[in-house]
Amino acid sequence: MNASSGVAESRGLEVSEAQTTPRPRDRETPIPTSPKDAINRAILEVSEDQIKGFVRDPMGEIAKRAGIDVGTVIERIQAMLRIGVVRRVRQTLLATNLAQGALIAWKITPDKLDFAFDWLSKEDPFSGHVVIRNSELGSTAWPLWTTIKVPTGFSLEKHCDYIREKIGAEKYRIMPALRAFVLGVGHMRRKNMEVGAKADQPAMDMTPAIVDLDDRDWRVLVALKRDFKPEEINQNLWAARAVEAGVSLSEFFVVAESLDKRGVIGRFSTFLEHTKPVGDASERLSSFNGLFHWAVPKGKEIEAGREIGRFTILTHCYWRDAGPELDDVNIMAVAHGETKEQVMAHKAAIDAHLRDTGIGFTYTNVYWGGRAEIKPSEISPVAYRLWARSKGLL
Predict the structure, then answer these.
(1) What is the DSSP letter of 148?
(2) How do the domains of the chain map onto residue ranges?
(3) Is the distance from CB of 354 to CB of 360 less than 8 angstroms?
(4) pLDDT at 27
(5) CATH 3.30.70.3460 fits 97-204+277-374, yes or no
(6) Per-residue pLDDT for 376 more than 50?
(7) pLDDT at 341 over 70
């Protein structure tokens, strides 16, 4: 029995010979691309969010942790990326340490919403997540939620003023992350997770802090973060990126590892398409995602965030001050699930924990994700300067 077969069978899944035979493969045999395939699932459970920081051989590390030969890992990730099951493969950055970042809520009328969504998705390279959300309770006066990052030395407020004028929004609310408690993905690992599952200890709280970079740092960083095309995925990922940055491979490694130590490198990740159906609609990884809101007592934000961050269903959790127009919410978190009932059950477990710990809350709500466009934000000061000049902002 080969390693690929062993991994699949250890999960109690039926695996065909075609699924477990590593390369070379009969060209007429299609490469399985479903995330439900046993080998793909084993790969994705590692590649989504387990390769922390910068590593010199990401494919080799994924293969080692998944217990699958590296040739099969490369073949499967390439195939899933080509078909769209994996929407991107890239080295992520801790962008809150590189640029002024915030979650922005936009107050905008329904008749302008689709135009605003399209404009932000296509015309603003500094917007990342662009999501239309509906409130579980009460009216949805703030239906558009985006993340925006503006490099140091430029104005986030001026950027948002420009967008507000372009999309016809009434107003916006800038909510920077004052603390981060959870930041990750791992949709495959979270599927069928037990309601209320949580870590033994409270989550750590992380404070964003801008790191100064020199020209060589930026050249390496820009090359490092660019998405990989399927044909670029191999066991020597960084050689071409070193050429792009104008440095030797050994120098590229030194700079990248230094950036990691300075806290600006996130993880190497395969990002699954979880907001849109791919192929058969049954391949959609999660049909519901909820942005959870809590207004916890002032002075209890860090304690509450650390307790909420223990719950392993969450992909994100932050302290952000939303202000009185958004019910003085100060802790926000995101969870995904296959049904609304499943997501709400997880939230109920978190609510109960907040009460049991004596922290409590005065308000809570869920903003359900609808139409969404998820893309990496541009963070380069050079790119921002060029864009801002083209828009008359400089």
Answers:
(1) E
(2) 3-83, 97-204+277-374
(3) yes
(4) 56
(5) yes
(6) yes
(7) yes
